[in-house]
Amino acid sequence: MIFSKLQVQVKKQFDVYTVDQLVRIASRFQSDIHLEYNGKQVDAKSIMGIFTLLIAVGSTVVISAMGNDYQQALEAISAYITQPPNA
After folding, report:
1. What is the total count of domains within the chain?
2. I need a labelling partner for 63 at 20 to 30 A (CA). Which of 21, 22, 79, 87 fits?
3. How far apart are the C-alpha atoms of 24 and 7, rounded to whole Å?
């Protein structure tokens, strides 16, 4: 199984809309995808899990993915959370 991690800086407020969109993006992929912040790791396909992280704008998170489409998953999620609001 192929596995990779990517560290990115968050440029979006993690409000209800942003988290919902992030989960929708993650759910398009078969890979297991996780977000890690402040030593806590959650499933990127879980709205409640992501909310428990309390991710702030400007912070750094680690995205990890394992599976056949891991690279596309990392690229899509990274592009979404590093894109400034209204961009």
Report:
1. 1
2. 87
3. 20
Q: Which domain holds residue 76?
A: 3-82
- Over residues 12-64, the pLDDT tens digits come to 888 999 999 999 999 999 999 999 999 999 999 999 999 999 998 889 999 99
Residue 35: both structure tokens together: 């977000």
Residue 62, in any domain of the structure: yes
**Nearest C-alpha neighbor of 68 from the set 22, 20, 24, 2:** 2
Closest listed residue to residue 35, CA positions, set 77, 85, 79, 80:
77
Q: Is the distance from CB of 85 to CB of 13 less than 8 angstroms?
A: yes
Write down the pTM of the prediction: 0.89
87 belongs to a structural domain:
no
The CATH number linked to 69 is 3.30.1340.10
